[in-house]
Every structure is written in structure tokens, then in C-alpha cells.
Input
Amino acid sequence: MKKETLNTIKTSGFKLPKDYFEGLEDTILAQDTLESHSKTSGFNVPDGYFETLENKILTKLEKPEPKVFNLFNKKTIVSLSSVAAAIVLLFNINLFKSAPTLNSLDTETVENYIINEIEINDLNLLINDSELSQTDFIDYNLIDVDDYIDDIDLNDLYQE
Output
């Protein structure tokens, strides 16, 4: 490679585009007309606008204040709470549901429920020993008991 120094460079390195000088005059004239039109903004202010502006603004600001209604006064709160209480009572009263009674249940249905759904340990928790004893299920016939006592020999019971 050959070293280039300032003495050896023959070209300047700048090139003009093709047909540059042919459209140059039209471009300069178009730029000049653009600059002459841009000096005016194109907007006009009406005569006496700034003298009447302050009065127009003040007349718009001097409107009477509208009357303010309070949404949450005592009357509305009482009426809304009474409607809410009526709705709650409507759904809490059992008008739409009929509860089964003991007379309407079959004994077999209750027995099946106890056998299939309730465990023995749960029954033990529900029934106390003091409430339920074996003697509650024995049907004593007093005549038979008297006969039995008469038949027992007291000597058999007494032993030395």
C-alpha cells in the first residue's frame, strides 16, 4: 500500500449529485417564498379582544351556587335500614321451607339414619350414664317377683 500524503492526493474527495445545478434555482426561489410567508403567523386577534376579555371571564364566574342536598340525612338512613330489616326478616322466616316433624318421620327411617350415619362413640357423648341405665329397659311384673321370692328357700341363701 502506498502512503498518501497531502502532496500526493490529486482529488478533493467531494462529489456533486447528478443534475444538481439544474434544479438549484427553483429550490432557492421556493425557499425564499417559504421564508416570506412564515414571517406572518396567519392568526388574527379581533379588535378590542383583550379589553373585553376580563369582563367576559368575570361574568361567567359570578353564577349563583346551586343548592346542595345531603344524601345521608336521618330520614334516608332510617328508611334504608327499615327496608334492609324487612328483607332480612323475609328470608329468615321459614315461609318457604317446611321442617319435618316427629310425627311425619317413619321409625324405620330414623333407625336407618342412626345405624348408618351415627357412630357409637358419638352416641356415647350424647347420652350420660345417669340418664340411661339397664333397669330402664326391664319390665318388672310384680306378681312374678312375689312368686319368685316365695319359692326361694331362705336356708339356701344363708350359709355359714
